Automatic annotation (TrEMBL):
Keywords: Acyltransferase, Glycerol metabolism, Lipid biosynthesis, Lipid metabolism, Transferase
Protein name, UniProt field: Diacylglycerol O-acyltransferase
Any one GO BP annotation for this protein: response to hypoxia
GO cellular component labels: plasma membrane
Keyword Transferase in record: yes
Lineage of source species: Bacteria, Bacillati, Actinomycetota, Actinomycetes, Mycobacteriales
NCBIfam families found in the cross-reference section: acyl_WS_DGAT
Keyword Membrane listed: no
Pathway it works in: Lipid metabolism; Glycerolipid metabolism; triacylglycerol biosynthesis
Amino acid sequence: MQLIAPMDWVMLSAESREHPMHVAGLQLYQPPPGAGPDFIRGVYEAMLAHREAQPTFRKRPAQILGGMPGVTWSFDDEIDLEYHLRRSALPGPGRVRELLELTSRLHSGLLDRHRPLWETHLIEGLQDGRFAVYTKMHHALVDGVSALDLLQRSLSSGPSDDQIRVPWDLPPAVQASQPTNGPLGRAVGTAKSLAGLAPATVALARGALLEQQTALPFRAPRTMLNVPIGGARRCAAQSWSLERVKAVKNAADATVNDIVLAMCAGALRSYLLDRDALPDAPLVAMVPVSLRKPGDPAGGNMVAAVLCNLATHLDDPAKRVEAIKTSMRESKRVLSQLSKTQAMALSATTVLGPAILAGLPGLGGAPPTFNVCVSNVPGMRNPLHLNGARLDGSYPMSIVLDGQALNITLASSADSLDFGLVGCRRSVPHLQRLLGDLETSLKDLERAVGL
């Protein structure tokens, strides 16, 4: 028996047909020179030969009262690998557009609670000869950092390595001995830390009200993005040069994440202006902050969240960057004063929890905790390969919620930043246009800092 950690239980409890609670990744691969027509079939069969699965890939929630998640995990002794690993082909003409349409449909479907909570789809048929892998896992099993760690460990650093490794059959990562860091230890630690939340909340309020530099929960303006959502999703993806973003970062004396937030702020400002829907008050972004350290247990969620003033009311991109820098610096300062458990508890009670639980009956209608999630997950620093096929891009696809109809998540992949956008299909029209707005926003930032 293994207890479900508190935040993981919230992820399971909040799931419904309108609110799938899985995270996913879409990877694009360029086959090696000389790869024949049977290359992808060979990759699929080699993956299928890995019949063993580590505990994270064998567990599902024990259920009570006909479907509600209990407080423990069940573990399947065997898994139906042909169900979890699937091979698909795109319809013609096999453009990235068709790939994203398939990704949108896959991302809309719920994971089967009667089976371990993950699926991997090997997708061929792209007209340029590349192939894709789409994998989704329930957010109760992994956070963004641990999901990317699984991906990196399953790939090789060189094109000559033809050994195929799969995330579900990796050896356990080397971990330090931390007996109190499992689900029970985290639950006890969270309870013990509740007494420490009052000083943290006071510090947060002082930073916001006296210094006017930190965004507070439930102070975000209501926008067209902050509405009840349906179950269908639309996904969009694009890569940007990390070198371009770093050049702006250096010129603005900022961080890469500050510039990413500024890119998103400018894009959202343009997107909402085009629809005559930009509020007078600045939008607020929720920015997840990973608390995972070397030696921490794999799986589950070890994440806190800070709120960032996106300064979308400002027309000047340079002034917008300065406002974002200040907001992030002050929010991180408050977070740095807390222990890991206190940071997770504070985020769960004031930011993440209210946003997730807003989809439960009777709990909606409150002002939005924030307007949009912008998550920057540290990714791969060097080129990686799958059976000699080069990884061309790795696009995270995350969660949208009632009142939070848009999610922007990105990950670094060698020399690029790979953006994955997920929106409610009904509530966020023309999601792909945000990609053009992001490029325009980056160009505006380059001009603003003199590049």
